[in-house]
Amino acid sequence: MPYYRRVGEVPAKRHLRVDQGGGKGLLFEELMGAGGFSGESALLYHRHSPSAIVAAEPVGDPRDSALGFDTPLLPRHLRTAKLPRGGDPVLGRIPLLGNDDVVLSWVDADTDSPIYRNAMGDELLYVQAGRGRLETVFGALEVGPGDYVVLPTGTTHRWELDGGNLEVLVLEAAGHIGFPDRYLSRRGQLLEGAPFSERDLRVPRGPLEADGTDVEVVVRNRSGLSRHVHARHPFDVIGWDGCLYPFVMSIFDFEALVGAIHQPPPVHQTFAGPNFVVCSFVPRPFDFHPQAIKVPYHHANVDSDEVIFYSRGDFMSRASSGIGAGSISMHPAGFVHGPQPGSVERAAGQERTEEVAVMMDTFRRVGLSAAARHVADDDYPWTWSGRHR
Ligand SMILES: [Fe+2]
Prior knowledge:
Elements: E1 5-8, E2 28-33, E3 41-46, E4 53-59, E5 76-79, E6 94-98, E7 102-109, E8 116-118, E9 123-129, E10 132-136, E11 139-143, E12 147-151, E13 157-161, E14 166-173, E15 213-221, E16 224-232, E17 237-242, E18 247-250, E19 269-273, E20 276-281, E21 284-285, E22 305-312, E23 327-331, H1 343-347, E24 352-353, E25 356-362, E26 367-368, H2 370-374
Parallel strand pairs: 8-15
Antiparallel strand pairs: 1-17, 2-3, 3-17, 4-16, 5-23, 6-7, 6-26, 7-14, 9-12, 9-14, 10-11, 10-13, 12-18, 15-16, 19-20, 20-25, 21-24, 22-23, 22-25
This protein binds fe (ii) ion (FE2).
C-alpha cells in the first residue's frame, strides 16, 4: 500500500527527540516496516513504550487448522450456512481451505474480539453481513456489508460488533497483500485504467489516543498464540505517517470492465498476495455481442485452484447446482469446469448480472479442513452430468 498518509500529530522531522510536555517525557517512535525495512513503512508516535509488557503466557489455539487433500480430486461446494455460528471475529474463525500461502476461514461472530496482532502475514477480510468497528493502532475504521478490509502484518487491532452478528470471510496470507502491479504507476499511484482509485480507500481519520494500564493483546506467530499484557494501552498513538496502514474498500467501488464477449478473470482482479490473487465480481451489464456466451465457457485453469465465495445476487452459471449466497465453490486444477447445464441458454436473454462474489485463485493446491468436508454438498461434483449419486 504505497499511498502516503499522515494522520494525527506528527513531528516535522523523523527520528528526533520530541518532548510530550507537561512532564510526560519523550514520545516513543515505532517504525513498522515491511520487507526488513526495505519495503513500505509507517512511523507511529506512542505516548508510552510499545515494548513495555508485564506478563506473557501461551494461549491454546481454539481452531483446527489441519488441511488435507482430496482424493479422488473433486470440485467442491461448501455451505457456510451449515457451519457453527458464534465466537469473535478473530478466535472464532473456522479455517475451511488453504495452503502454506493463504488460509481461507469463515466466521459468523456474535461477540467482540480481544486485541489481536497477527505476526504471520497480512489479512484480507470481506464482510458478508453485519456492521462493526475495527479499532487499530492507526485509528478506527467502520465496516459493513461488501467491505474489504486489508490489515498489514503485525497491525494491533480489535473488532467491535455493532449490535448483531458479523459474518466475515477471512484470508490470512503468509506475506503481503497489495494491488496488482499492472494497476500501478512506476511510483505506486493507481493508474487511470485501474478499476478503483485511491479515493475509494477508507483509512483511519485520527488516532484513538487510548489510555489504560495492563492491557491484554493476543499475538499469533509461528509458535501459535500468546497473550501479552502491555503496561499501557497499545492504542496510545497520537499520530503516524507513511505508506503502511490498514484500509477498507467496498467491493461496490470496484468498477467492472465489460466487453462484447466474455472477459477473462484478470479484469476482475482486485488484490495480489503471495501465490494467490483475489478478484471481485460485481453487478454489471452482460457481454453485448448478439451471440455472446454470457456465462463463463468451460475452462481449465491449469495453474490454479479456483475458490469463489458467492456473496449475493443471482449466480447464472451455477443456477442448477444448489449454489447460492453464502456458498463457496472450489474448482481445483485438473478439473475442467464451466456452466451447469441450461445456464448458457438461460443467460442468453439477460442484459445484466446482479452477482456479487469474491474469487481467490491460488497457484498452489489448497487442502480442505474437517469443517469444510462436513459442510460440503456431496451432490455438487456430479451436477454437470446430472447423474446425482
Ligand atoms: Fe472458473
